[in-house]
Amino acid sequence: MAEIEAIITNSACSPGWYSADSLFANALDGNYSTLAHSANATAPYFTLTLDKPYKITKFSVAPQSGYLSRTYCTIDASADGTAWTRLYTNSANIPNNTMTDWVVTDSGRYKFIKITLTGSAGYLVFSEFRTFGETDTTKYLCADADGVKAFVDAVWTVIGELPVTEDMFGEYGADMFPQDLSGLLDDAEVYFFTDDPLVLETPENHALTVRETVTSKPKTIIQTVDFDIADVDITKLEFEFVTAKRDSSGNAVGTNGRVRAAFSFDLGVNWYTFNNQTLEFETLDITDTAAFLENGLNPSSMSAFDYSAFNALRTATLRFAYILEKPTLTDAAKVRKTKITYASGVAI
Ligand SMILES: [Ca+2]
Question: What are the extents of the domains in the chain?
Answer without folding.
Answer: 3-134, 138-206, 219-342
